[in-house]
Specification:
Elements: H1 6-17, H2 21-25, H3 29-42, E1 46-49, E2 63-70, E3 73-80
Antiparallel strand pairs: 1-2, 2-3
C-alpha cells in the first residue's frame, strides 16, 4: 500500500468532501490514481497500488482491492484500471 504525504492526503480529503470535476481534472495522472485509491480506502478497502507491475496479459491494472476475509488476512475483491478521461463534449444528434 502506498503512503501519502500529509499535504497530498489533505488535498485528497478536500476533493473527497467537496468533489468537483475540475479538481479531479487538475490532478496529474499518477495523483488521480492515488486519489481513486484514497476513495476506495475511505470505503474500507485495503488498496494495493500495482500500476508499475507487469502481468502476463500486459499492463492495465492500477489498483488491487482487498476486503477482510478472516482475522488477519485479506481477500482480493477486485482489480481496477483507473482512467481519467478528458473533457466530455456535449453533442446533439441531428434529425
Amino acid at each position: 500500500m502506498m503512503q501519502l504525504d500529509a499535504e497530498k492526503l489533505t488535498h485528497f480529503r478536500r476533493i473527497f468532501l467537496a468533489p468537483s470535476i475540475a479538481a479531479m481534472h487538475a490532478l496529474n495522472p499518477e495523483d488521480f490514481e492515488l486519489f481513486v485509491s484514497h476513495v476506495f480506502t475511505c470505503a474500507r478497502h485495503t488498496v494495493d497500488h500495482v500500476a508499475g507491475q507487469r502481468y502476463p496479459e500486459g499492463t492495465g491494472v492500477d489498483l488491487d482491492l482487498y476486503v477482510p476475509a478472516t482475522k488477519g488476512s485479506n481477500q482480493l475483491r477486485a482489480r481496477v484500471e483507473v482512467r481519467r478521461l478528458g473533457q466530455m463534449k456535449a453533442y446533439t444528434t441531428q434529425q
